[in-house]
Amino acid sequence: MPHVEVNDIKIYYEVHGTGEPLLLIEGLGYATWMWYRQLEEFSRDFRVIIFDNRGVGKSDKPDIPYSIEMMAADAAGLLRALDIQQAHVLGVSMGGFIAQALAIGYPELVHTLILVCTSHGGRRAIPAPPETIKAMLNEEGLPPREALRQAMRPAFGPGYLAQHPEELEKIIEWRLAEPTPRYAWQRQFNAILGADLEGKLSEIQAPTLILTGDADRVVPMANSERLHKAIADSVLEVFPGGGHLFFLEQAPAFNRRVLEFLKGHPMDN
What we know:
There is one protein chain. This protein is α/β, with parallel strands linked by helices. The chain has one domain: Rossmann fold. 38% of the residues lie in helices and 18% in strands. The protein is built from 11 helices and 8 strands.
């Protein structure tokens, strides 16, 4: 299994397809399986790099404080280890925080930026509803399978799970097959809580596409609107009825829009 050593840890990664590099950055507690509805389509036209953030999947899980900037440094180290001078970068949820930090701290590495259902963090960010936080924290001490089922329900849009109950169970099986230790999930969660990128958003120079669902109960849509106002010349598009995982729920439309944006901003040869 391919790993690179960056920042004193080993990061697991995969490369699929050929073409301009496209780095996908996953969300809180998710691993590379997260891209099961994007990978095949994206890799037809791009060299897609997926990886496990520190704390999840097959990457190392040090029990030390994490920060969004630290995880952005991991992503930068991965790109450099692969001798990638510049990449398109797409981040979902926590991955969107990391993608912002990557574009701010390592602008030379980021050709285009796609921020999906995410936020800039800090005191002016719009928090998740209390019931969502309660479901995620498992204060009742439920066993792993039921705790995951409870935590993930708010991530889907209204009515989606009633029509696609198999979707939730498939994801739960993946998460249980390679579980994230509780301490590591908390380290990632604390990194999100400690993030505040708002004051540096004006530094982002890469062409930026912001995508969100209007029924997101994890990172409310208003956060994407705030990002759009703060990032110069960014484009905001809203997916009607989309929950936090709208990129899975509405994958064909999501994939089509992402590819349209990427192909509209080719790298110089």
